[in-house]
Write a structure and sequence with these properties.
The protein is mostly helical. It contains 18 helices and six strands.
């Protein structure tokens, strides 16, 4: 069977150039333009990489029109409802779900690697008490590279996995320490008797000595439904193909930098309000709306082309249908309302906004469906996690995706340093 190709004709001189079409296992095929500049002396022009495949990957697949998301071929709906976050981590790193024995070994290793080097703890004191946890988190992960210099030159798969397990285990500890430092309260060390997600919630909430502080609803214990909800959020955030922060991680990887420096770069990129910081903006906007009877006013502002107001938590760069992660979180939100009596002033406002947006032709015609950020903000608020920690929670979930993408890039013999070109328009 002959290979498929594209023939491009230069109308300036009549020359023709043929480029092969690379076939993917799912999704759009790709036009291989790697020799385009050497053939024609021209660059392609694609701001924001809206039509450019920057790499070949077998980790995550998205079909934005169908609202489909798969990790290693497995639908996100299955992973989020039938498997834990640690199982998802194992899947991303190894390409298959673990057996019970392998999961136990993986879980135990993550628990024991969650502790930080004592020298790293001094770094937190260099930040003011009111420092945003994302700033502290990014700096601490960069510093982590100096404690594990051996990861700069790895030779086999075992070393790659050791490096990956270490960063996955330590990110929740760093995030919890950053949060507690921002409040000026003592750190809570990891507990090897606790599983991944419960351990993080404990490091966030507990007082020294193991006693849990009273939550806003007067409960002093972490409920299983809370653990399950946060674990689901981690799974939904685990990877999302070549988004902005993942592209940053791969680009930094291309320079030969330490893997933890690449992760720190991804953390900084994720902090942007157009990326991982969007869920924090959703809650801030709901607080600004203030009451249910003001929702119609802000919906009108969002529809007014002359008003700069933008409704946060709706629409997505890739999904032109309902974000599949949002569907899962919508169901989870409803379960939380029943199981822990979740009901709040902000949720009433959010439900009113959601109701209008899902029935209004303006939003429907523009594919402005609620996205993952819309629901995570509400759920994290219900879990007593403050706004400043919304994006660090995203980081915890996404770390496995970043490090898996880093490993894939480093092990690809065709990978090279990232060097986009430009259309120069200066003097």
């Amino acid at each position: 069977m002959p290979k498929e190709s594209f023939t491009l004709i230069d109308n300036r001189n009549g020359k023709q150039y043929e480029y092969p079409v690379l076939k993917g296992s799912r999704g759009p095929d790709v036009l291989d333009l790697r020799t385009f500049f050497s053939d024609t002396g021209l660059f392609s022009y694609d701001p924001g990489y809206t039509s450019t495949a920057s790499c070949r990957s077998n980790i995550t697949f998205i079909n934005g029109k169908k609202g489909e998301l798969r990790y290693r071929g497995i639908p996100i709906e299955e992973l989020a409802t039938e498997h834990t976050y640690l199982e998802t981590c194992y899947l991303l790193l190894n390409g298959e779900l673990p057996s019970a024995q392998k999961l136990l070994a993986f879980d135990l290793e993550i628990r024991h690697r969650a502790f930080l080097h004592e020298g790293l703890r001094h770094l937190f004191n260099a930040f003011p008490d009111n420092a945003h946890p994302m700033a502290t988190l990014s700096a601490a992960v960069t510093a982590l590279a100096s404690f594990y210099d051996e990861h700069l030159n790895m030779e086999n798969g075992t070393e790659y996995l050791e490096m990956a397990h270490r960063i996955i285990a330590k990110i929740p500890t760093i995030a919890a320490f950053a949060y507690r430092h921002s409040l000026g309260i003592p750190f809570i060390q990891p507990d090897i008797d606790l599983a991944f997600t419960r351990n993080f919630l404990t490091m966030m909430r507990a007082y020294p000595g193991g006693k849990m502080h009273l939550g806003t609803e007067g409960h002093d214990e972490i409920k299983e439904v809370e653990v399950r909800a946060l674990d689901t959020i981690f799974t939904l955030h685990a990877d999302h193909e070549q988004n902005a922060s993942t592209t940053v991680v791969r680009n930094v990887a291309s320079t030969g930098a330490h893997p933890y420096v690449a992760i720190a770069s991804g953390i900084s990129a994720l902090w942007g309000r157009a990326h991982g910081g969007a869920n924090e903006s959703v809650i801030a906007q709901l607080e600004m709306i203030g009451s249910v009877d003001r929702v119609d006013t802000f919906i009108a502002k969002a529809k007014d082309p002359d008003d700069p107001f933008r409704l946060m938590g709706f629409g997505h760069r890739v999904y032109k249908n309902f974000d599949p992660r949002a569907r899962i979180l919508k169901k989870l939100q409803d379960e939380l309302k029943e199981e822990i009596g979740l009901n709040s002033h902000l949720m009433e406002i959010a439900e009113k906004v959601e109701e209008i947006a899902l029935s209004d032709e303006y939003f429907i015609s523009r594919n402005l469906y609620p996205n993952i950020d819309f629901y995570t903000g509400i759920i994290l608020t219900a879990l007593q996690i403050p706004k400043s920690m919304f994006t660090p929670v995203f980081v915890i979930g996404r770390t496995v995706g970043w490090i898996t993408q880093w490993i894939e890039f480093k092990q690809d013999p065709q990978s090279k340093i990232a060097r986009p070109r430009q259309l120069y328009s200066g003097q």
